[in-house]
Amino acid sequence: MTAADLHRPAPEAAPPPAARPVPGWLRLAWLHLVSRRDPAAAAMLAGLGAVLWASLHWHWNVAGGAAAHRAIPLSIETGAAMVIAVTCYGPFGEPERATGRWLPYLRLGAAAALTAVAFGALAAGAAAGGLPGGVLALLRNVAGLTGTGLLAAAALGGALGWAAPLAYLVLTEGAFAGSWTTPWVWPTRPPHDLGGALCAGAVFAVGLLAITVRGARESLRD
Amino acid sequence: MTATTLPVRSRPQAGQPGPLGLARLLRVELRRNTMPWLLPLIAAVFWFDSYRIAATLPPLWNLRAFYILGQGHALIDFAPFVAGVAAWMGSRDGRRGLADLVTTSARSRFAAQFATWAATAIWAVGGYLVFMAATFWALSRSIAWGGPPYWPVAVGAVGVAAFSAAGFTAGAYFPTRFTAPVAAFGGVLACGMSSQIGFASYGGWGLILPTNSNNNYGQDAGIFYQFLPDLPIARVMFLAGIAVALVALLGVRATAGSLRLRHTAAVTAAAGAALAITAIALALTAQVTAYGVVIPALHDAASDRPIPYTPVCGQAAGLPVCVQPAYQPYLADVTAALRPVGTQLTGLPGAPVRAAQVANFFAAGPGALSPAGVGQIARISGRPPVLYLPLGAFNLPAIFGSSPTGFADQIKLETVHAFVTTGKSYGDPAQMAVEAALMRWAGIPVAAQPMQVLAPSPWALPSNGPHPGSTYPAPIAAAATRFAALPAATRHAWLASHLTALRAGQLTLAQLP
Question: Where do the structural domains in chain A lie, given as residue ranges?
């Protein structure tokens, strides 16, 4: 047998199954999502939706005023933003940046898609009824909180992206206690309030832009 | 000579990793730790949530530190962040797929992980202590007397270490990128639940929670009597036990090190758990005393000694008024409030010859120490009569919406109440009318008294709804207005002759002039 023969399949060998070719862009997107653990993040977001449903269905409550009344739903929304922020962390660093022409678009798509998944999961959880502010406030809060997480990921690194939504939660609780009404603390505003929605939307847009253009900051301390 | 004839060299002894090596490892971990990156953010949160509120409270250590330490806001501000960062550090090797590689290194896996945790905890606890020191310094600038409570600071520091241990162990056992936010979220939930249970628990196991201020914080602790360390010691034991148990769990795993090390770790984990359980058992034996929570097994009788002080005094219409030096900022308010009341009472039988501040004590639940079902209130007693004011039980200016006017009104009300009713909760109609008239002459209009003075007092006017009554019953208001309209000399003369009967409840409204 010569080397040339190797190119020819043996006459008795069965032909390989005709695998349907996966489009390159789809495979790239999937690999990006997997490298950021987005499927696991989606599962966690679904879990948070279930927790929200349980909290509303069984009327979990915290004693106190307005801040306490919204504490549990707001904490769950914060948890969703924290999960999304952590998915910005990428393990590949320089090689990925050097070769990944589509990387900004992938980052944009992944962050936007996960935010949509978070909103969908929590909105499904809110179906139990009684969510303070309703679905509109939920959308505003999730978007704004996610924006803080994306900004923190861009500034501090994906590993610490969760810290900003958490800090914002503390700020919000303090604002509720102090009866603040600034639209920058949008959870304190009514659901139809334009100022709160604009601020939350602006933070989300800036966060999305930062993570798209710059990506999560990389630190050797990771 | 061939290779086989070479003298056999003795096998080099594997050097035992010594403490110097561990210190070097710790130094490396301190340098490469993520925690310092988050300290500025925690500082901002701490300033906003803890210091900013505390600085607005009255300049007394027990009140300013109540919010930060008593209700545990300092720990709440730190704990979720520390748990998250510790989880990130704990999951580092696992996330990078280096677990097998580092397991084969000279030092045991547990030693390396312990160094990483220790570095994280040192940064976190160090940051906490620095922030607390800066906070105390900033708060102390306007506090006249006394010092901060240090045991609750220790509770917070050990609590921070415990949360770092919890986060780190979670990260080591579940090394994913999601462990950090989940640990931080868990920290939020743990602190929230601790606060929730703490607000409602006046005894039992709930006292062990570091955010529970009931019966162990506030009142006049640190002013008239010492901050009792019993409960903070139990809390330190509880949190230290949890921290030790969780860190020791790192050494139980098969990859942690030698069998002996794993056995030692298991025993240590059990000891830590036992320490935490012991602390809970101690909390169950707690008794609420006038000075706070006493745990008999931990109590030191020296803690019951009152704090010596030299009172600071002023004058209110010839009435000497003395307060504890910590309350010196309020002396002018107190004398100003007593002046118009003292002017009316001078020369009457049973009128106080001086006023002195007395301690506000702890109680076994709301109102349990009340002399007449109304909490701790002013009273006049002794021969010669002395007006005793528990200023610590009053709504001091700047305490959650109270104003200097409200504080002064409360002093006036309680003084005339102590004079007319001798400390009963509600007076009879005649007593209420005389009280209203005396307050009228002390500067509070009769019509304004029900809402302005009585509503926030322990004897608000009853009503049919959930809110206190907003007007005096018509006969009382009429009698009070009539009595207040009398000339001062006539009023004084009538009181001098009828005060004994009035106090005994033997007069009716119709008998008032």
Answer: 37-213
Task: Name residues whose C-beta falls within 8 Å of residue A15's C-beta, 6 or more positions apart in sequence.
Answer: A9
Terminal Cα-to-Cα distance of chain B (whole angstroms): 132
b/e per residue B50-67 (b: at least 16 CB within 10 A): bbebbbebbbbbbbbbbb
Note whether A198 contacts B: Cβ–Cβ < 8 A: no
Q: What is the DSSP letter of B225?
A: B
Contact B435, B417 (CB under 8 A): yes
Q: How far is CA A54 from CA A127, B169, B335, in A?
A: 10, 28, 57
Label the pairing between strands B312-316 and B319-323: antiparallel
Minimal-distance CA residue of chain A relative to B93: A222
The SS3 of residue B387 is: strand
CA-derived radius of gyration, chain A: 22
Using an 8 Å Cβ cutoff, are B432 and B476 in contact? yes
Q: Rounded CA gap, B403 and B409, in Å?
A: 10
Provide the sign of the torsion angle of the four alpha carbons B26, B27, B32, B35, taken in this order. Answer: positive
Q: For residue B31, give the chain A residue with the closest CA.
A: A221
* B196–A contact, CB cutoff 8 A: yes
A185–B contact, CB cutoff 8 A: no
Q: Do B37 and A156 touch (CB under 8 A)?
A: yes
Which chain A residue is nearest to residue B37, measuring alpha carbons? A156
CA distances (Å), origin B183, targets B85, B172, B179:
9, 12, 6
What element of type H or E holds A112? helix A103-125
Q: What is the CB neighbour count within 10 angstroms for residue B444? A: 20
Q: Does B189 touch chain A (CB under 8 A)?
A: yes
Tokens of B352: 């106080």
Instruction: Say whether residue A98 is in contact with chain B using an 8 A CB cutoff.
Output: no
> Would the CB atoms of B49 and A40 count as touching at under 8 Å?
no
Give me the long-range contacts of B47-55 (CB less than 8 A, separation at least 24): B48/A170, B48/A171, B48/A174, B49/A170, B49/A173, B49/A174, B49/B73, B49/B76, B49/B77, B50/B74, B50/B77, B50/B135, B51/B135, B51/B138, B51/B139, B52/A174, B53/A174, B54/B135, B54/B139, B55/B138, B55/B139
**Helix or strand holding residue B322 (H, E):** strand B319-323
CA distance B186 to B83: 8
Sequence-ordered alpha helix ranges (H) in B291-377: 331-345
CB contact under 8 A, B44 and A37: no
Which pTM value belongs to this model?
Answer: 0.87
The interface predicted TM-score (ipTM) is 0.85
Q: Do the beta carbons of residue B149 and residue B222 sit within 8 Å?
A: yes
Q: Is B71 on the interface with A (CB under 8 A)?
A: no
Structure token digits, residue B128: 């906490």
Structure tokens at A47: 């879990």
Each residue's pLDDT expressed in tens, for chain B with a length of 513 residues? 455 555 555 555 555 556 667 888 899 999 999 999 999 999 999 999 999 989 988 999 999 988 899 888 999 999 999 999 999 999 988 887 777 777 777 778 899 899 999 999 999 999 999 999 999 999 999 998 999 999 999 999 999 999 999 999 999 999 999 999 999 999 998 888 888 887 777 888 889 998 888 877 888 999 999 999 999 999 999 999 999 999 999 999 888 888 999 999 999 999 999 999 999 999 999 998 889 999 999 999 999 999 999 999 999 888 999 999 999 999 999 999 999 998 888 889 889 999 999 999 887 444 444 444 567 888 898 889 999 999 998 888 877 678 889 999 999 999 999 999 876 667 888 999 999 999 999 999 998 998 888 888 877 787 767 777 788 889 999 999 999 999 989 999 999 999 999 988 888 888 888
